[in-house]
Automatic annotation (TrEMBL):
<dbReference type="InterPro" id="IPR001810">
    <property type="entry name" value="F-box_dom"/>
</dbReference>
<protein>
    <submittedName>
        <fullName>Actin-related protein 8-like isoform X2</fullName>
    </submittedName>
</protein>
<dbReference type="Pfam" id="PF00022">
    <property type="entry name" value="Actin"/>
</dbReference>
<dbReference type="InterPro" id="IPR036047">
    <property type="entry name" value="F-box-like_dom_sf"/>
</dbReference>
<dbReference type="Pfam" id="PF00646">
    <property type="entry name" value="F-box"/>
</dbReference>
<dbReference type="InterPro" id="IPR043129">
    <property type="entry name" value="ATPase_NBD"/>
</dbReference>
<comment type="similarity">
    <text>Belongs to the actin family.</text>
</comment>
<dbReference type="InterPro" id="IPR004000">
    <property type="entry name" value="Actin"/>
</dbReference>
<feature type="domain" description="F-box">
    <location>
        <begin position="35"/>
        <end position="81"/>
    </location>
</feature>
Length: 443
């Protein structure tokens, strides 16, 4: 194999000289459709040689002549490089390039997409710098890098910077400056993806104006800080992209409320209606605290309760039958030792379906999803009703074991578990929308 690769490089250098000589003699006597001695080598062996040589060497070979260029430009070769040279999952790359590459608004039909050159896809992704990800949640903000699976840190939301009378611009400026300071990175070196919390759910003119004002303030602040490009996307849309879908219903379990959001071709269908349930991660933690207090389980802080919720709680498939089982389990909390929970483990998550257990007058999660499905069906936005039959869970509380497979009487389908994209930092979903120049792409 080493000898064969050596012959390839000898051919490259020889043909480079021939190309220069032929350019001065009008290319007479040279057949550019031939690979020379390598015509006798089977094509699959040649492709294996190119795979072993690596993407940089393969690209250099493609500069030799039209024949080598045609061989090196084979999509299968660069799909191999994308699958083996980059850390991004191949299905995510394919979704990003076929669904998101053209930006917003998204194409309604994938058949309208132009044929892809994965050689160009590879070169663009290698040249693209890592993106800064900022998830502006309602409870607290998480930030980090697109190339990592977990956030680098977290801070208070921008609403907690300054005071209520401070202008939006100054509060956002302080907020973003704090994050960049903690990340120790220059603002001018990397594009940024901002996850915007869902707010102003209505389709009224005042709600539209409020959403537009927030976006414009975010863009204005970041561009004034010399950020090269900005992609501001709402959390529900990013969660749908993380599930490699552009249409569906997103159940976003936030810090204070849960939103059921219908999305068609990447756009929130506010005219159909966004259902809001007054239950979120904060209420789940508070309910577990009350259950622990009722059972004389002592703790020192809410951080301990939240840790126990994340480590021990789950959603029962049959709530009544769960009481007859031995559900005891233990977990260690930082600085407070070990805690053992039993029925509190499944009683906590049950309030998502029975809010009255926590003293909340609201419909259950399954009822809200069923209502959203009915509204989508009645709206008749497309001739194909399959777009709203994909339901994606997002938010930290969506990771409660058993929630994704929980089937209730009012639900004729299963919820599909996918983590929030801004938490898992699946940057390949949005980096195709980030230009290297001073661009603006907002959804």
């Amino acid at each position: 194999m080493a000898t064969l690769l050596k012959k390839v490089w000898e051919s490259v250098s020889t043909r480079s000289v021939l190309s220069l000589e032929m350019s001065s003699s009008d290319h007479r006597g040279f057949d550019e459709s031939s690979l020379g001695e390598f015509d006798r080598i089977p094509m699959d062996i040649l492709m294996n040689i190119l795979k072993l040589s690596g993407p940089k060497s393969a690209a250099k070979m493609g500069m030799l002549c039209k024949s080598w260029r045609s061989l090196v430009s084979d999509n299968g070769l660069w799909v191999f490089f994308l699958q083996n040279q980059l850390v991004e999952p191949w299905d995510s790359i394919l979704f990003g390039e076929t669904k998101l590459a053209l930006g917003y608004p998204l194409e309604s039909f994938s058949s309208q997409m132009m044929p892809l050159s994965f050689m160009e896809v590879y070169s663009k992704r290698v040249a693209l710098p890592g993106s800064v990800i900022i998830d502006g949640g309602s409870g607290y903000c998480k930030f980090g890098w697109s190339k990592y699976d977990c956030p680098s840190g977290r801070s208070a939301t921008f609403l907690e910077f300054g005071n209520i009378e401070s202008p939006m611009y100054s509060r956002l400026r302080h907020f973003f400056a704090t994050i960049y300071g903690r990340m120790r990175v220059k603002t001018s070196l990397h594009p940024v993806v901002v996850s915007v919390p869902l707010c102003h759910y209505d389709d009224t003119e005042s709600a539209k104006a409020s959403r537009q004002q927030l976006k414009e303030a975010i863009h204005s602040v970041l561009f004034d800080m010399n950020v090269p490009s900005v992609c501001a996307v709402n959390q529900a849309t990013l969660a749908l992209y993380a599930a490699r879908r552009t249409s569906g219903i997103v159940v976003n379990i936030g810090f204070q409320v849960t939103s059921i959001v219908p999305i068609l071709h990447g756009k929130v269908m506010r005219k159909v209606g966004v259902e809001v349930v007054g239950l979120g991660a904060l209420k789940l933690t508070g309910h577990l605290r009350e259950l622990m207090q009722q059972n004389n389980i002592r703790f020192e802080s809410m951080y301990t309760v939240r840790a126990l919720k994340e480590n021990l709680c789950y959603v029962a498939q049959d709530y009544e039958a769960e009481f007859s089982k031995d559900t005891r389990a233990s977990s260690e909390a930082n600085g407070e030792g070990w805690f053992t929970l039993s029925k509190e483990r499944f009683q906590t998550g049950e309030i998502l379906f029975r809010p009255s257990m926590a003293g909340v007058r609201a419909m259950g999660l399954h009822e809200a999803v069923a209502l959203c499905v009915d509204h989508c069906h009645a709206a008749e936005l497309t001739c194909d009703d399959s777009w709203f039959k994909t339901v994606v869970l997002s938010g930290g509380s969506a990771c409660l074991p058993g929630l994704a497979g929980c089937r209730r009487n009012c639900m004729g389908f299963f919820l599909l578990p996918y983590p929030m994209v801004s938490e898992s930092f699946l940057h390949h979903m949005v980096q195709t929308q980030l230009g290297l120049g001073r661009g603006l792409l907002a959804i």
